[in-house]
Amino acid sequence: MTEIPKDHPRYESLALREEITRCVEAGITSRQGLIAHGRGEAIDYLIGEKTLPSALEAEEAAVAALLTSKNPVISVNGNTAALVPGGIVELAELVGAKIEVNLFHRTEERVARIKEYLESFGAKDVLGLNPDATIPGLSSERAKVSKEGIFSADTVLVPLEDGDRCEALIGMGKTVIAIDLNPFSRTSRMAHISIVDNVVRAIPNMIKSAKSFRYTRVIDLLYFVYAFDNRKNLEAAVEEIKRGLDEGRLEESSGYSKLSIW
């Protein structure tokens, strides 16, 4: 792996790329996951690589939804396992959620490796290796789920999701929470709570919220959930992106280098 100098201006971004690449070589992330990560990284530029106020609001509502659910489940794919394995384990413990591995590019070997990888961070009883139920209306490998987990869940957190399964889960009557940097995606538009944020920021933020909500009354948590308007939140995210683009116009006075032939 490439040794990245810690004083490099893009250290964090490059370090994440290296981790994704390492996990591809370890059989945790698929090669297609590299493309998905790059696409998300491009959109992350547009939001300034920071948690927007709208995202923080969504993260708080998401945690409240998980805490007030009877059977919450966190679905994990290769990229999520590569980027925030410890965070997923900690969040699951704090909100009382099960963890289930669910993959589009599924092989039994990959599921086993992700399960083992999460367990190395303290996860227990990770589901997904032996699916015994099927999501109706879904023909991809993502349809294979655990009856104890995603199939019977009332709330599912789906970081880095694809739209087909999001739609199918909603069709089953589940509350779906998505973490998706693209506010225009079908997943973001269909989910009940869409977090437009990088998963490496969203999960730590949700952990903080879960800790701060530890002694919050259920009725107050439910207020966070029912007061949340996903459509308005996505519109706010888009406006924040537009504002950031407007403020970041390339102007002559901005200090960009100019080519000189003298």
UniProtKB/TrEMBL annotation:
<keyword id="KW-0547">Nucleotide-binding</keyword>
<feature type="binding site">
    <location>
        <position position="39"/>
    </location>
    <ligand>
        <name>ATP</name>
    </ligand>
</feature>
<comment type="pathway">
    <text>Cofactor biosynthesis; coenzyme A biosynthesis.</text>
</comment>
<keyword id="KW-0173">Coenzyme A biosynthesis</keyword>
<comment type="subunit">
    <text>Homodimer.</text>
</comment>
<comment type="function">
    <text>Catalyzes the condensation of (R)-4-phosphopantoate and beta-alanine to 4'-phosphopantothenate in the CoA biosynthesis pathway.</text>
</comment>
<keyword id="KW-0436">Ligase</keyword>
<feature type="binding site">
    <location>
        <position position="17"/>
    </location>
    <ligand>
        <name>ATP</name>
    </ligand>
</feature>
<keyword id="KW-0067">ATP-binding</keyword>
<feature type="binding site">
    <location>
        <begin position="198"/>
        <end position="199"/>
    </location>
    <ligand>
        <name>ATP</name>
    </ligand>
</feature>
<feature type="binding site">
    <location>
        <begin position="180"/>
        <end position="182"/>
    </location>
    <ligand>
        <name>ATP</name>
    </ligand>
</feature>
<feature type="binding site">
    <location>
        <begin position="186"/>
        <end position="187"/>
    </location>
    <ligand>
        <name>ATP</name>
    </ligand>
</feature>
<comment type="similarity">
    <text>Belongs to the archaeal phosphopantothenate synthetase family.</text>
</comment>
<dbReference type="InterPro" id="IPR038138">
    <property type="entry name" value="PPS/PS_sf"/>
</dbReference>
<dbReference type="GO" id="GO:0015937">
    <property type="term" value="P:coenzyme A biosynthetic process"/>
</dbReference>
<dbReference type="InterPro" id="IPR002855">
    <property type="entry name" value="PPS/PS"/>
</dbReference>
<dbReference type="GO" id="GO:0016881">
    <property type="term" value="F:acid-amino acid ligase activity"/>
</dbReference>
<dbReference type="Pfam" id="PF02006">
    <property type="entry name" value="PPS_PS"/>
</dbReference>
<dbReference type="GO" id="GO:0005524">
    <property type="term" value="F:ATP binding"/>
</dbReference>
<protein>
    <recommendedName>
        <fullName>4-phosphopantoate--beta-alanine ligase</fullName>
        <ecNumber>6.3.2.36</ecNumber>
    </recommendedName>
</protein>
